[in-house]
Amino acid sequence: MTNNSTPLAVFDLDGTLADTAHRQRFLEQKPRNWDAFFAAAPHDPPLAEGVALALEHAEECEVLYLTGRPERCRKDTVAWIAAQGLPEGRVRMRRNDDRRPARRTKLQILRELARDREIRVFVDDDELVCEDAARAGFTVVRARWAAASAALKEAQEREGRT
């Protein structure tokens, strides 16, 4: 049960908790193969640093997962979270037809959540998302423990796909 006095710890998935390196190849080809990229997500290895941080924050916070993955990936995403031993938590996903940049969609959701809840921390690997969230006054942890992907960064910003 959600308690509005319990602060939220908001975690991104791809590049923060999930290692997407094995599926980057689908974004490096032209045209990008989004169906294959998302279909491979259930096979993502967990990123130990991110998982440890989520478990640590779960001791005092409600964990909420905020991902740019489309809603059609919900079943696989929820199963992946459970399989990694991550804390239970709500999952906020992008509408299937939403192509806005991640920094817009995520900041909008953070602001909505902050209306009636304290957001203790927001953890994400996307520098543009982190910059905008920090500028808006959120406490941000930049997830810099996964290898950066130029193709993924372009997809997040220009194509609004993850």
UniProtKB/TrEMBL annotation:
<protein>
    <recommendedName>
        <fullName>Polynucleotide kinase PNKP phosphatase domain-containing protein</fullName>
    </recommendedName>
</protein>
<dbReference type="InterPro" id="IPR023214">
    <property type="entry name" value="HAD_sf"/>
</dbReference>
<feature type="domain" description="Polynucleotide kinase PNKP phosphatase">
    <location>
        <begin position="10"/>
        <end position="141"/>
    </location>
</feature>
<dbReference type="InterPro" id="IPR036412">
    <property type="entry name" value="HAD-like_sf"/>
</dbReference>
<dbReference type="InterPro" id="IPR056782">
    <property type="entry name" value="HAD_PNKP"/>
</dbReference>
<dbReference type="Pfam" id="PF25109">
    <property type="entry name" value="HAD_PNKP"/>
</dbReference>
